[in-house]
């Protein structure tokens, strides 16, 4: 009995003549990859276990989730990975390279019939070239780095046949969305798939990548496409070793055969929340579009961007729509520059980013906010995956047409039908109920436990780091207070309502961020005593009804834990624990008036 494609690949990489579904094999891994997402954990796992790297020449870091390092945790992880790579002689495809799975194909790290593992759940994109790819957790990847192999359970294979001639404007993304609509989120669960049919045979490499990339969204381990002559010719000069493409035997045994009827299908779209909730674009009711994202490992190839540019050329995006475009790799970015695609996107009003995962990963451009409707060419639209808004999955052409119209449109609709009025924007919620104490309960004399932080020039990044600036809910800001001030990172856990901060000169130096005041209000701190304050910080505090008392205190005046009393009108500060009294600057005049009414904008 013959073998399927995945059975042949796993057998060849485990030193066996044949394998069958359910067998456990120890598979040699040709390319072992860790991203900036998870890479630092792989390093930690290896160090903790006292393990080294089996073959640095087959081991790689790829930084694609947050190429700009705009998130502190990603920046730290990338630095850890770079240092480890230098120590071990490992190649790093750094922030200028692009999405690791695409880089692996472009750089010949993987080839038809080869094997690759990565911390990327879409490593199965390798099925586009007839190779095996698997996303794995940090411990799995660490094991592959250390031993050069990984255990694997041979999956059953489902044969998926695409029949019918789709209608005009039907793209590879529409094809895979149609398959998701038929198969559902569990249709390939725990299985490999082999894809066949004239529509599959006609796909170029970019189209194959699009189709293979969404097997994860159907529960599949991988969707393998038999390599075409074009794909083999592309991979042959790039591959790091000679290869022969792998094809299923004529008598291969499949778990089942599934047919996807394309008929005269046109452009498809997946509604928010479920990649398999697929309908025809033209069947949707009029749906407002606030932002559009074109890119990702699913649709970030040059051919994808060229398709979007073709629709956009000569148009401008709707004035109320934001269009974000991110190529998959730097080589594609350069190709777009050389061929003038970036000029088309910029003329239309798009934001163009550096290569990477973008909207599918936190931190890079492409995220959306609450209530925002986004048309995305990515592969997932789970709640929260691309931000806090709603995401529709569509092809590059549909995404571009929707950016122009301001409502979801296919290219045909854009050209042939009048554009309807955009539905009214859902208004932001009205003002929240005031969470401040009533004016009559605002004490002008208060007492509490002192936290003595005798440090000058504590800046706003030390008080409330810029990595938390996206937080807009004051009730959640307290947890971050002082977490970037050395020695005081646990302040928020130890502080109790009523505690008073006593600190040095120039407190609150730095930026204008009001969160550096609000975080203390959240914790219930009734006031701050300092030798002096940063000018902007002092204004922010006064306007937020947070008393800030200037007082030229000495280290002998206060100790941590002393009970102190503050009289705002007189500026008198009594150390109840020691009996000492210190006179500070009265919190008087307009400052006290604003405090009494609960803030600058109250009353």
Radius of gyration from the alpha-carbon trace, in angstroms: 30 Å
Number of helices: 20
The figure for the number of domains is 3
What is the number of E strands?
25
Strand order of the largest sheet: 22-21-20-19-23-24-25
Judging by the overall fold, what is the CATH architecture of the largest domain? 2-Layer Sandwich
Strand content: 15-25%
Mean pLDDT: 93
CATH class of the largest domain: Alpha Beta
Question: Which homologous superfamily in CATH is the superfamily of the largest domain?
Answer: Aconitase, domain 3
Helix content: 25-40%
Q: Distance between the terminal alpha carbons, to the nearest Å?
A: 84 Å
Major pleated sheet: 7 strands, mixed
- Look at the helices and sheets and give the structural class: alpha/beta
Low-confidence stretches: 432-440
Shape summary: elongated
CATH topology term of the largest domain: Aconitase, domain 3
